[in-house]
Each structure stands twice: as C-alpha cells, then as structure tokens.
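Researcher: I'm preparing a figure for a lab meeting and need a structural model of a single chain. I don't have an experimental structure, so a prediction will have to do for now. The sequence is pasted below. Please return the structure as tokens so I can convert it later.
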Amino acid sequence: MKSKRPSVSGGIRHSGPSSSNESRSSARPSTGINRGANTRGASTNQRSARTPEPEPIRQQGAVQSKLRFSDKFDAYITHHSTSAIDSLMRLLETPLQSLMTWMVIAIAVALPATLYIVFSNVQQLGETWEGSSNISVFLRPDTSDNRADELRGRIAARPDIAKVVYVSPAQGLAEFKAQSGLGEVVDNLDKNPLPGTLLVTPRLQNASDAAITSLEQILVADPLVADVRLDMQWVKRLQQLMMLGKKLVFGLGGLLALGVFLVIGNTIRLAIESRREEILVVKLVGGTDAYVSRPFLYTGLWYGIGGGILALVVVGIGFLWVSSTVEQLANLYESNFRLQGLGIFGSMQLVLIAGLTGLLGAWIAVVRHLYHIQPR
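Model: Understood. Here is the structure written out token by token.
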C-alpha cells in the first residue's frame, strides 16, 4: 500500500521557489539599505572634507583714531577763549577784591607814565629854549652888510647849524633903545658903538660838548669875526637835565614793574592754593601743566589790562587838573607852549605794557607754584 506522505523531493521542489523568492526578496531590501548607507557616508565625507570658513574677529576695547590738525587747532582756540572768559568772570564775581588789586597796579603804572609825560614836555620845552643858547658872533666894526650876509650864508650851510640871523648895528641899537629905557642917552651918542652880530643856533639834539667847542673855534678863526660868545653852561645844564630825566623814568619804571610782578604773583599764588583740589583732579584725568596754567595766565593778563585802564584814568584826571595852570603860566611868559599828554597811541602802549607785565608776573607765579602740585 502506497504511502500518501509527501516525498522529500517534492517538498524540496515545492519549497525551492519560495526560498529563492525569499532570498531574492530579502536580497533586494538589503541592497537598498546599503545604497542609502553608502550615499549618506559619501555626503558625510564630503562635508568633513570641506574647510570651515574662519569667523571675523571683533576688536574689543578702545579704538584709536587720529585727529586732524584743524580739529586740534579748534579745540586749542576754544579752550583759550573759555579760559579767558572764565577767568574774567571769576574776577567780576569778587568786584571789591579785584578793584583793590587793580588800583594797586594802576598806581604803580601811573607813576612812571606821569614821569614820562613830564619828561616829554620838558624835552619839547627845551627845543623851544634852543634860541636862548645861541652863539653870538660879533663882527669887526669895518664889516659891511654885504660881507656879513655872505658870512651868514656860509655858516648857515653847515649841517650842524640850525639857523643864523644877522643883526645889523642899526637894528641892535634900536632894540637896545626899546628894551633898556635909555632912549635919551642913546640919542646923545655921537656914533653907534654896537657891531654887527650873527646869532647862530646850533643843532643841540645830537651835539656834544666837544662838537660845540669845535664849532666855536671854527667861527673865531674867520677873519671877519672879532669875538664869539657861547653860554656853554646853559647847554650843559640842559643836556644833563635830559639825561637825568631819562634815568629817572626808566629807573622808577623798573622798580614799579617789579612791584607789579610781586602783587600779581602773590595774587596768583593765592588763587592756585585755593583751587589745589581742582588742579589735582584735572591732572589725575590727564590734564597737562599747560592746560591747567592757562586760566591763571589769563587772570594775570586781566589784572594787568584792568590796572592799565585805571592808570589811564588817573593820569587823565591829573593831566586835566594841571594843564590849565601850565597854559596860564605859559601865557605869562608869552609862550605858545601847551602840555602834551600820551595820546591815543601812547595810551594803547600803556595798556599793552601793563597787560604784558601782568601776564609775565602770572607766568612766574605759575612756574614757581603750579608745577609743584602733582598727584601721588
């Protein structure tokens, strides 16, 4: 009896296609997975092969920048103007104290200015007195008017002669008769006893004693000249007075300028001490000595200018007070002399000199005291 169990070979044949299908079906997905893995691996290798771009480094901290010269110059001018205005406002905030300092400076400046005015007017008066120091050249009695006029022309052509006037014997006698009051005596004279005379006026501005003596000898050597009279004592006195006046003006001016230095220097020293803490703070944040010193220098300048203006006021009041009396005295002597003041140019010079003196005094005080204040 035949068995109905499936044969091994049939089972194998039946199962053969299914196993091959399973193997094919199982082979396909495995092939797809490997492809995807290979693709992802290749892309990963490409990304890893790329060089990463460096990020820009940002600067940290302060950034240096260069200022233009015009900016520096504008800042320099701005600080100067600010310092000048601020220093003036500080002085005006204490008017009484500032006025007292200005008055001291004004008196110190007004004294040499007054001496200068006096010296200038004495010089002007001395020029008008040059006629009183004439050289009187007496001619010989037999000298005619024509020869006397020729001699006058030769003497007047000299560079050291300012003027020559010929006085004939008749003119001299008429002047003597009018001024002496001896008219009747003169009328009774048989002949005119006066010789012809040349009144020679030398140039005294640049003339020394030796030059005037040499001129006298030259005039005496002329054959038409009988005698020469020269008041050398008057010329010497006038020259010595001028020299003395110059020395007094410069000497007193130097002493009073030293007084102005001391007054302004002491004032600036007190101002520096009162602002010591402020100066230390400014230097701690980088302020230079020149930056710190500018307000004090402008303070000295304002002190000097204010003192110079007040000195002009004092000198002007004194000038108006004296000028009328001098004019009346000149009229009594029948002179056209008038007292001369400083004028506009001289007044500007006085204020400028006072301002520079104040600035110099402040600079001396700043150098002596401010530069020693240093932060620790």
